[in-house]
Inverse folding.
């Protein structure tokens, strides 16, 4: 048991952070916050994919033209 305690004290020298205790103190609030963050990340990834797809559709035909711009 002494080895685990020493390893724990090396990893977290000041104990469990107050912010983590506040997050995990109310389980329902924690899961709602986690769901909100997950939803926001999913929406950002969707927007990035949509932007890339639209950009590819607009630029690809112009790149295929091989025109000389003088």
């Amino acid at each position: 048991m002494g080895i685990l305690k020493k390893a724990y004290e090396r990893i977290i020298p000041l104990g469990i952070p107050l912010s983590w205790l506040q997050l995990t103190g109310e389980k329902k609030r924690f899961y709602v916050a986690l769901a909100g963050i997950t939803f926001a990340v999913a929406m950002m990834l969707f927007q990035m994919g949509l932007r890339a797809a639209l950009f590819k559709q607009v630029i690809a035909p112009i790149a295929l033209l091989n025109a000389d711009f003088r």
Remarks:
- The chain has a mean pLDDT of 83.
- Helices lie at 2-11, 18-25, 27-64.
- The CA atoms of residues 6 and 53 lie 52 Å apart.
